[in-house]
Write a structure and sequence with these properties.
The protein has 17 helices and eight strands. It is elongated. The longest helix is centred in the first third of the chain and has 37 residues, at 82-118. The two termini are 28 Å apart. A hairpin with a 2-residue loop joins strand 1 (123-128) and strand 2 (131-137). The strands form four sheets. Strands 1-2 form a two-stranded antiparallel sheet. Strands 3-4 form a two-stranded parallel sheet. By secondary structure, it is mainly alpha-helical. The chain folds into three domains: 4-78, Fumarase/aspartase (N-terminal domain) (Fumarase C, Chain B, domain 1), CATH 1.10.275.10; 93-111 and 139-166 and 204-325, Fumarase/aspartase (Central domain) (Fumarase C, Chain A, domain 2); 332-432, Ribonucleotide Reductase Protein R1, domain 1. Helix 4 packs antiparallel against helix 17 (415-432) and helix 12 (340-349) crosses helix 13 (354-371). The chain has helices at 4-20, 26-45, 57-69, 82-118, 138-163, 182-188, 198-203, 206-232, 260-283, 296-320, 326-335, 340-349, 354-371, 380-386, 394-397, 400-405, 415-432; strands at 123-128, 131-137, 165-166, 193-194, 240-241, 248-249, 257-258, 323-324. The chain is 64% helix and 6% strand.
Amino acid sequence: MIYITEDIEGSIAHAAMLGMQNIITAQEARQLQEGLKEILADLDSGKLVFDMRCEDIHMFVEQVLTQRLGDVGKKLHTARSRNDQVALDLRLYLRAECQKLMKELAALTAAVTDQAESCKTFVAPGYTHLQRAQPILFGHHLLAYSMMLLRDAGRLDNAMERMNISPIGCCALAGTTYQTDRWAEAEMLGFPDIARNSIDGVSDRDFCLELLSCLSILMMHLSRFSEELILWSSWEFQFIRLSDSFSTGSSIMPQKKNPDMAELIRGKTGRVYGDLMALLTTLKGLPLAYNKDMQEDKEAIFDALDTVHMCISVMTPMIATMEALPENMYKAAQNGLINATDLADYLVKKGLPFRTAYKLSGSIVAECMAKGWVLETMPLAEYRKFSPLFSGDVYSAIDLKTCASSRISEGGTSPESVEQQLRYVRQQLEKLA
């Protein structure tokens, strides 16, 4: 059950702090800690099951503890409220979920990067406006997603830093009359800091919103990638082939192989966006401090986390088993006449002003389209009809591999740049390990 481990871990630390501060005796603190550990063990083994008649998990634990220890069990709730207890449990749970998500993100990024490395020499058309634009290396395109996923991990790490603050000891809203040690309790639970204002400590759900925002941006990236997988695997593109494990057939059309898993990930994105908007709407009009409306945070954040975990668990092996089809990519690049910019650059290097070279290259592209040529197969005699500057070296200048290799600026699509990007991503992944 969500929360049970976190709730009991928080209570064990609270009992220890009460004993350290002599708010209860050392023996009572030990009894409470041992009793709580036994409850957790019994829940894990199935010897004890949650009583649905209890109002919530907090009351269930205290009820069982009191049944087993008598009045000592009733002392556990000294110097705390369910308000700060709920806030604590939520932070503990989300912290653990984020740590798990970071590992999943690293595995996904590694899978994308592995594919980028295996495709680093494949020439493909790069697109703007979904129109063939310039030749690129397919590995360069895939690495764009590696970069996005690294930023997603960075955002998640930043969110965890602000989440990792202890609210316990804020009590209902105003603190307590007992001489507690909130810092010691925070340290026992792995928090480097405490909520400095007790009202903020019980009413803050910024960390949920920030996490939901991170998850929404991550899902946006997964959705964009899914859209490209859907396009690339279509008959119109045929740049990749998805494994049958992540595709389904049609119920009546035997020739079809549908990219259903990618479509589902794309579709789930709106669900996570909805969770973010739901919680933003819930919180926008709430006065301080705690209000019952705030229990709506659980459904939103739990649903978003479940959705993201599920989508990454599907996306990672789908990418890892994806098969690239470089011959089709190259053919599409050729037929798109996407080396026209390089043709213009060739003329510029021969001394023609760029704007004149640009216009001339456009006329040559129109001629190729009219006669069914590509730039690499247009006869030299035809080139020379447009300009005497053309000579036999034009063919090496507009070779698609040359075009991709010549983009030597840092971050570009040249083989050297792609290798540099691969090294960078690998280095960042080592930091995430």
